[in-house]
Amino acid sequence: MTKNFKIKLPEIPFDLEEGKEGDIFTKEELELSNCKISNSMISSKNFYPVMISKVIFKGVTFPSVSLERADLTDVIFENCDLSNVNLRQGSIHRVAFKDCKLLGVDFSESSLGNVSFEGCIARFSSFAESRLNQVIFDQTSLQNANYYHSKFINVEFQKSDMNEVDFHQTVLKGIDISTCTFDRMNVSMESLEGCVVSPEQAIGFSRLLGLKVKQ
Hints:
This is Quinolone resistance protein. It holds the Pfam family Pentapeptide_4. InterPro entries: 5peptide_repeat, PA_immunity-related. Helices cover 6% and strands 28% of the residues. The protein is mainly beta. The protein has one domain: E3 ubiquitin-protein ligase SopA (Pectate Lyase C-like, 3 Solenoid). An eight-stranded parallel β-sheet has the order 1-2-3-4-5-6-7-8, with no helix packed on it. The chain is elongated, with a radius of gyration of 18 Å. The relative contact order is 0.11. The model has no long low-confidence stretch (mean pLDDT 90).
């Protein structure tokens, strides 16, 4: 993963004990911390609100779970399936998603800081009206993802599929998408100003201006 800036990695102890879903309900408030959950399915549908810190989820399935307004800090999701999970209005900081299925995940109106998406499938995910600070998407499928009216501060897209991504009302100045692939993108010329693209991509975007490129 090549980064033009450095993100803070999840701060997790090495000696985590094995945990289970039921551990979330051990306190008056929904909370899970300092454990590792592996190869299981989260059967509860609604954790509202929940605080999760210093936890590793590996091979865990979250079938359409609602984590609205969740506070996730120092968390790793590895080979997990979070498809259609509701993470609206969440606080997500120092979190890593590695080789995860994130189809249709709703991150809208959330705050993401020092978050990495590596080798994930995040088609139809939504980051609408979210704030992304120090966030990396690396080799991730983002087809039809929605970034409407999002705020980007140090966001990087590397070798990702961005076909049909929606960037309406999102400023892309300084954002480098030159290594990514797409046939079509929903974006205005105003949003594109200052965006870093490859020569081939520039030819495609010229059509937005009604230009005809002579070979």
